[in-house]
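Researcher: Quick test of sequence recovery. Tokens follow.
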């Protein structure tokens, strides 16, 4: 049995109004307090590396670099949680799964590139003049 829409009205299939017509908030919007918490954490996570570099607090470049990388990773997490509202519950976990997939691809690409460049450097570097004289 077909349904006929009256003039001036639109007929929607069952379930379509839930997808397109209505917008429900599923807790994705943050509160003022959560935004301020994220902002303050971002300021702290930016100020600490700035202080470490400008004040030459540690004196060791390698240790300073490692601390800056760790704080940068922490700041990425703060931005994803407080500003992008990413968690395992949002959109049925699909955003988190997409993030994991992206991170895996980035890690594979970076590690593979570094591995290839290292082996190219080891296997294709020109010989020193002393090594060239020693070859038959």
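Model:
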């Amino acid at each position: 049995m077909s349904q006929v829409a009256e003039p001036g009205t639109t007929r929607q299939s069952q379930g379509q109004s839930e997808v397109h017509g209505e917008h429900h908030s599923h807790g994705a919007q943050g509160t003022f307090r959560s935004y301020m918490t994220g902002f303050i954490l971002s300021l702290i996570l930016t100020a600490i590396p700035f202080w470490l570099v400008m004040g030459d607090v540690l004196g060791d470049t390698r240790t300073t670099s490692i601390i800056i990388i760790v704080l940068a990773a922490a700041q990425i997490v703060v931005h994803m949680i407080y500003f992008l509202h990413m968690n395992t519950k949002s959109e049925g976990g699909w955003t988190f799964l997409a993030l994991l997939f992206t991170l895996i691809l980035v890690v594979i690409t970076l590690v593979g590139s570094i591995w290839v460049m290292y082996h190219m450097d080891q296997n294709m570097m020109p010989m020193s003049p002393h090594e060239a004289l020693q070859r038959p």
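The chain has five helices and no strands.
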